[in-house]
Amino acid sequence: MSAKKQHNNILLAILGFVVVIIIVALIGVFTLSRDPEIMQGQVEVSEYRVSSKVPGRILEIRVKEGDYVKVGDTLAILDAPEVRAKMEQARSAENAASAIELKAQNGARKEQIQGAFQVLQQAKAGLEIAEKSYNRIQRLFDEGVMSAQKRDEVYAQYKAIEAQCKAAQAQYDMAVAGARMEDKLAAQAQVGRARGAVNEVKSYLGETVQTAQMEGEVSSIYPKVGELVGTGSPIMTISMMNDLWGTFNVREDQLNGMNVGTEFTAFIPAFNKDVKMKVYYMKDQGSYAVWKATKANGQYDLKTFEVKARPIEKIEGLRPGMSLIVK
Fold it and tell me: Is the N or C terminus of the chain more exposed, i.e. has fewer CB atoms within 10 Å?
């Protein structure tokens, strides 16, 4: 009896040991079974900042945060008195240059031309008398009744009046012809320069009225009415709601062959629905902060990639910042 009892005890011990092993194995299977890995991303949107080329004071803001604007809508109006003053200066310079050009094109006044003509006629009359006097003295000299000294004096006087007549003729011709071609071209260049300055100031004046360059939603407004803004300072941010995408940070061992053009399904908790997305951008983060070091296990480092994907179909109500879950 004692041998049989001892045998039964051994069997019970072995059976208990086997049961314990089975229980431990089951516990290990359930506790060590891995849950599906989850990648979380969020919805992003293209934005642009509205800013001015000229400094000024915010005179009026025509929109509020959350407003939807279209191309050409007025967003803000700035007050820039310095630019208006520069416009007056530029206009005055343009008017002065135009007057100089007109003077060069029109030439001398008719009174000046008439005066030059009268001087020329006077010089011609004097030349005619001087020529007759010289011819008379020359004949007397040839006859021997006039000295060479007297003849030379009359000849010099004749040549001097002849030079005066030529000078009067040149002055008259210049008055009739007007300004030189070079002067006209220089006057035209001055007008072009002045007009360029006016157009430049016009462009600055246009910057005092800020309009929407792209359609979108006003997401942020920075200054208040009455505040000063500097050159290039952002006034507001416009979110282009027609250009939404999702961005994910994916470790390279989770890519599973994902490439540009790959389609996958993401879950949107805000709508409790799935959405089909298509990858259009992939790039490694390039920072040690996003590496997973595994060399201690004799393997290799894993880098993280930034993956961007757009919804294949438009989803109404999708907003920047909403979460996207990929299993």
Answer: N
What are the pLDDT digits (tens) for 55-110?
A: 999 999 999 999 999 999 999 999 998 888 888 888 888 888 888 777 776 665 67
Residue 158 near residue 134, CB atoms below 8 Å: yes
Sheet architecture: strand order including 56-61: 209-211, 74-79, 56-61, 228-229
User: DSSP assignment, residue 36?
Assistant: P
Alpha-carbon separation of residue 31 from 20, 22, 39, 288 (angstroms): 16, 14, 22, 32
Q: Is the dihedral of CA 77, 80, 86, 88 positive or negative?
A: positive
Q: What is the dihedral of CA 172, 173, 178, 181, to 10 degrees?
A: -150
Could you tell me the pTM of the whole model? 0.59
Other CB atoms within a 10 A radius of the CB of residue 180 amount to 11
Structure tokens that stand for 327 in this block = 């299993």
Contact (CB, 8 A) for 324 and 308: no
CB 210, CB 234: distance < 8 Å: no
